[in-house]
Hints:
The chain folds into 4 domains: about 10-95, Alpha-Beta Complex (Conserved hypothetical protein from pyrococcus furiosus pfu- 392566-001, ParB domain), CATH 3.90.1530; about 105-220, no CATH class; about 230-280, no CATH class; about 280-340. The chain is built from 12 helices and 6 strands. The strands form 2 sheets. A 4-stranded mixed β-sheet has the order 1-4-2-3. The protein has a two-stranded antiparallel sheet with strand order 5-6. By secondary structure, it is an alpha+beta fold. The chain has helices at about 25-30, 35-40, 65-70, 85-95, 105-135, 155-165, 170-190, 195-205, 210-215, 265-270, 305-315, 320-335, and strands at about 10-15, 50-55, 60, 75-80, 250, 255-260. The longest helix is centred in the middle third of the chain and has 33 residues, at about 105-135.
Amino acid sequence: MSVTSQPNSIFQSVDPNSIKPHPLYLSIYGEAEDVSDVMGLIKNAQYPRPLLITIENTIVNGHPYWKAALLLGWNRIPVEVREFPHQEAEIEALLLENAARKKTNEQKVREAIAWERIEKAKAKQRQQIAAATTNKKLGRSAETTLQENFPVSSPGQTRDQVAKLVGLGSGRNYSKAKKVVTAIDKLRQQGNDKSASDLRKALNEQSVDAATKLIKAHPSQSAKQTDDPKRSCWNCQFCSKEQVKDNHTFYCYKFGLLSFLEKDAQTRGEECLGWQYRWNVSESDSCQSLPKNSYFTLTLPLHLQTMFEDAARASGMTLVDWTCHHLLQAAQSAKIPLKV
C-alpha cells in the first residue's frame, strides 16, 4: 500500500480512560508534561478538534488534550478513529502534529531517529515500485525480484534531511547528538541515572558540543561496552527463543509473530522503536538476583505455552522474566533461600 494513501476514519465519542498514549510520544516527549494551560482552554468543553487514535485505541495526535480531559474528570471526548496503512504512516502523523512545539535537543534527536525510520521505509517503497515497473516493461511476473538501478538518498543525505527537518542544523551535528542520546539511554539502562542526568543537562541546557566533550572528559559516561552486540531481534528482551512452525518466522512478545521474509533480525532490531537489550534489568525486577548469561532448562507441558505467553504479555514481561518472577515468588513464599 502506498505511503501516501489516505486511510479511512470514523468519528465518535469515547471514554478517555479507554484510550492510551502512544509509546513513541512518551519516548520522545516524556510523561511529565504540564497541561494546565490546556485545561484552562477546554474546561468549558471548548474542545479544539477530535483526538486522532488508532483502531487499537492508541493516541496519535492530541496527547495534551487527552491528559487534560482526564484531569478535568470528563467521561466522554471526541475522537477520530483512523486505520493507518502501516506503522510508518502512524508515526509520521504523530511527528507532524508535534512539529511546531517547543523541544529540547534530546527531543529533536529522538524525533530525527523516528524520521530516519520513515525515510528508510519510503526509500524501500520507491525501490519496490521501480522494480515492479521494470518487471512490467520486461514482461516479468510480479513475483520476480528485480531492483531498479536509480539514484537513492545516501545515508549522509538522509541524515542532513532529518537534521534540517527537526532543527538540529547539519547532519554532522545530528550524528554527534544521536551518540549523546544513545549514551544517555545506555546509562539509564545500567542504572546510572546521575550520569545520564548530567549528560542530558549538558545536551539540553548547553549544547551538543558540550555534551560530546563531557563524554570525552569522562569516558565512563559513554556507557560503551566491548561486548555490546549490534541491535538484533536475537538480543532483544522481547524476542522469544521458542521454536515456531516454520523456519522463517519468530515470535516477539511485543509485536507478535514476525517474518524474516520481510526483514532480517538485525534490520528489525536496528529500526525497532521498542527494542531493549535482553540483559537489561526489567521493570518488574524479576530474575535480577540471578547471574546474567546463565540458564538452566525447565521443561513444562506444551499445552501451557499459549496461556503463559498471554499472561506474560499482559504483564508487560518476556516469558522468561514472567516465569522466573512467579517461580521466585513461589520459592520465597516457601522460605527457600536463593543461592547464587
